[in-house]
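Bit of a strange request maybe. I'm writing a small parser for structure token strings and I need a real example to test against, not something I typed by hand. Could someone generate the tokens for this chain?
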Amino acid sequence: MAIQVINVGNLANDGTGDDLREAFIKVNQNFDELDLRASNVEGANVGIGGFTIFKEKSGNTLNFRALQPDPTAPGTVEFRVSDDGDTLFLKSTQATLVFTDGVNTITSNVSQPIIFQGAVNTGTEVTVNNNTKTVSIDSQLVRESSPAVSATLNMQQNNIANCGTINGISIDDIASVAALDFGGIDSTITSIIDYLNFTTDVDFGTITSPVGITLDEGLIVS
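Reply from user aminoacidic:
Good idea to test on real output. This should exercise your parser:
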């Protein structure tokens, strides 16, 4: 029902307005209408998306959620209302991450994000998964163009497969030499180097054209 207007006439006591009883009937009906409207009042959130500000109605009280910065988070929070006046925006002034290797330090910048990448010729790949919010680093020697180690390589009792040469020496040749049957020989041979020294002939040249090799044959014991 619409609010009723009491007719007060054109002039005082000219008999054109509502009589006293009719006027107070309208007054009572208007109070009833206002009371009915107050009981039907509800809060509404008119912004698009985000969290709702209105919580509930308790009697004649409309309860709204409080807005305040997270006390456990660094930085400050700024509040801004949209141009249409329907949406409240929150902005944090602390949105940085610091990366350091102990010497150099990089601080993230919202306008220029930090790029994760593998070092050149190291066989390292870096992938970023936006769904899981993770950064994965995968490093494999197979992808390196010039693999190298900076200390003794410990294979931990593991085998080396598909090996070519070591310092130009074929692994297959080494394996075949290591499998030789040395038979019964007088000299004590404990390594491939001893074997090569024992079995390799040395050409000293001729008396007129010596090579110039000095050979220490030890002592002759009588």
